[in-house]
Amino acid sequence: MLSADLLEKQGEREEAIAYVLRADSIVSLTDNYEWKARISGFLSTQYRIIGLIDQGKRYLKKGLEASNKITPKSASDQYKGMVYQEMAHYAMQRKDYEEAIILLKKVGPLFSSMKNVQMKNFFFGNNEEMLGRSYLGLVDYKTAQQHYNKALDFLNKAGAGASQWAGMTFHGLGKIALEKKAYAKSLSYLQKADTIAIAIDHTSLKELVYRDLSDYYKTMGDLGKYSFYNTKYLRNVNKNIKSERAATNGAINRLYEKQQGDLSLPNKLIMAASVLFLLGVLLYYFIIKKRKREQWLYEPPLTQPNVPEGDVSAPEISHLAEDGNEERFMPEETEMSLLQKLEKFEKNQEFLNPNLSLTLLAANLRINTKYLSHVINNHKKKDFNNYVNELRVFYIIQKIQTDPSYLNYKISYLANECGFSSHSKFATVFKNTTGFTPSTFLDRVRSEIAASKNVSQ
What is the pLDDT of residues 87-101, one digit of tens each? Predict the structure, then answer.
């Protein structure tokens, strides 16, 4: 469990899960319900993070069952409180912050019975940070700040002023200050969070801090530091995505192997025969459906209007099933495959094509435009045009910063180089993205290069 905890903080999620499953196999042979609750809680968290919600909730249920069997009652209450906190995390992931707050307010009385004062302060600090985060999600900055300040007070009393939860608290306070334009306070809080994130090597905290530090420096007009922190942010995003993808693949493989191992030989034979029969029946149907799908995929309906280049794609709306649960807009394997294709699209710099459109990219990726638009809106947090245009701007920024010859090119050449159809469109998008006109940015880079040469001389 200690190894798993360290690996999880470093973003090695699949290895962390593997260690916890080993711990689970050991503790399952005992009546140590405290460890069973702790292990179930850890696994619930990991499966929640990688998107296997049903699997995570199964472990959450196991954790609650184990918590009810723990003695003495004060220890049982402690673990019940932790289960409520994990339930609140699920609510926060759904952006249901009101539900998260209701759950977190149930935690206080459960933690109050803890005998160890230091641990009690630590758990109260943890809970106050989560309340602060929930109110921040509701854009109630005043209440969020009150809970964050309480969190720091409890954590300092617990001797945990340099812990992950303190780092999360400083990050929250920094984000509030940035939103309220209290820039000096924002930088101070974010730098404290950064110091903690580096000290404990916590990749998820680094991602949050680097994102908001880049936003801070962009707001302040310091494009050099903005570029520096934005690059670090993107690296951590990429690392976390790869970690979660590896953990998801590992979890799915383990579930498949378990299901295969649970089948008896007769059942396997019956299943194999059933599969062969179904394959024969569905073959003709599959061929017909494929032909129709390809026609729909590559030939837009006659009634579909042409979307002008500057228009914003509307995000797709999820639907609710009769039981109130959110239905998936597309199969999960399709969504993951499309994300991998977009990663390859970015790596190969295919966004530099000036004729690129949503329809063209969808055809190249062999997917329909609705799926593509949905994935970009939900995973890239922007519409198609802004997604492509930002990739182009950051491409040309990197070129300017790494190749001095680009400092001598005309703006129209730079626009054409990164895939924009006109000088004016490039200038508009560049300024909206960076806060600078292309000319101003070039002048600043030239000044920085000149200053660095003078220092070296």
Answer: 999 899 888 999 999
Phi first, then psi, for residue 110 (nearest 5°) are -70, -40
Tell me if 309 is assigned to some domain: no
Give the residue numbers spanning the domain of 246.
140-253
Q: Is residue 187 part of a domain?
A: yes
Q: Are residues 240 and 172 in the same domain?
A: yes
**Rounded to an integer, what distance in angstroms lies between the CA atom of residue 449 and that of residue 456?**
11
State the CATH number of the domain containing residue 369. Answer: 1.10.10.60
User: Among 131, 216, 224, which residue's Cα sits nearest to residue 182?
Assistant: 216
CATH code for the domain in which residue 203 is found: 1.25.40.10
* Residues 336 and 452 both lie in one domain: yes
Place of tokens 């709306």: 317
Q: Tell whether 341 and 387 lie within a shared domain.
A: yes
Q: Tell me the pTM.
A: 0.54
How many structural domains is the chain composed of?
Answer: 4
268 shares its domain with 249: no
Predicted confidence (pLDDT) per residue in 105-150, tens digit? 999 899 998 889 999 999 999 999 999 999 999 999 999 999 999 9
Residue 297 lies in a domain: no
**Residue 34 exposed, middle or buried by CB count within 10 Å (0-12, 13-18, 19+):** middle
Looking at the domain assignment, is residue 145 inside a domain? Answer: yes
